[in-house]
Amino acid sequence: MPVNDKNTPAKLTGQCVSIAYGQHRIVEDLDLIVPERRFTALIGPNGSGKSTVLRTFAGLMAKADGTILLDGHSIDTLSTKEMAKRVGVLLQGPVAPEGLTVRDLVQQGRYPHRSLFGRWSEQDQDACEEALMLTGMTTLADTALDSLSGGQRQRAWIAMTLAQQGEVLLLDEPTTYLDLAHQIELMNLITVLVHKHGKTVVAVLHDINQAARYAEHVVILKGGKITAAGPPDEVISAEAIADVFGVKSVIIRDPVAGTPLCVPL
């Protein structure tokens, strides 16, 4: 169940971050705090800058201005390889070469830890086996990716990011195209990674109620700006939903999780 993060240290911090495509600024003067060892959900309407923010905090897009800190140090000082060791990223619609097995894919997550001519080590093997175990993919390790269901493929990609053994996971719309059962399975996996394995997870989500139920920290974006950030109880309100999404709603208590539940009118 979500908790208050006011006394939780920041893992990632953005200070006055601006992001632009050419001359067009998508995000302006963004101040964002990602609590350590918590699940943070980024929500907002299409075009609000969620995926752009995620990519920039992953170091995959250059910012126009501002500073992004990882454990208090600018990510600009980190090499691409060092960043990949510490931050795992899963973008929308990842594509793997045809014929690749789950194990082949997961082993790619070890590339940041290996030198150009470095041999496959016991540590590499252990990291991959642990990633397969955590995602429930051990029995499917030698199965071709293209023969798996959508939910299984998504778990395989997450296993690859876990094999990197980074402290942070950044996931861009991880539940898109998954049926309800696989969405629940994936959100439960994220909960386990955070609470049992100490990961810091940030995910772009479209489902407000999914974010409210599973995330401890919710950030609402509109037009490249943060309109609210904090525990779900503090930021998910009928007023916020009307302002950001243009939808009238009532907020009731989820009878199972006790978290806010948005019911559109």
TrEMBL record:
Keyword Nucleotide-binding recorded: yes
A single GO BP: iron ion transport
GO terms for MF: ATP binding; ATP hydrolysis activity
InterPro entries named in the record: AAA+_ATPase, ABC_transporter-like_ATP-bd, ABC_transporter-like_CS, P-loop_NTPase, Siderophore_ABC-ATPase
GO cellular component labels: plasma membrane
Cited CDD domains: ABC_Iron-Siderophores_B12_Hemin
Keywords: ATP-binding, Cell membrane, Ion transport, Iron, Iron transport, Membrane, Nucleotide-binding, Transport
Signal peptide positions (record): none
Any matching Pfam family: ABC_tran
Predominant cellular place of this UniProt entry's protein: membrane
Spans traversing the lipid bilayer: none
Location of the protein in the cell: Cell membrane
Membrane topology: Peripheral membrane protein
Ranges for domain ABC transporter: 12-248
SUPFAM superfamilies in alphabetical order: P-loop containing nucleoside triphosphate hydrolases
Family: Belongs to the ABC transporter superfamily.
Protein name: ABC transporter ATP-binding protein
The species this protein was found in: Mesorhizobium zhangyense
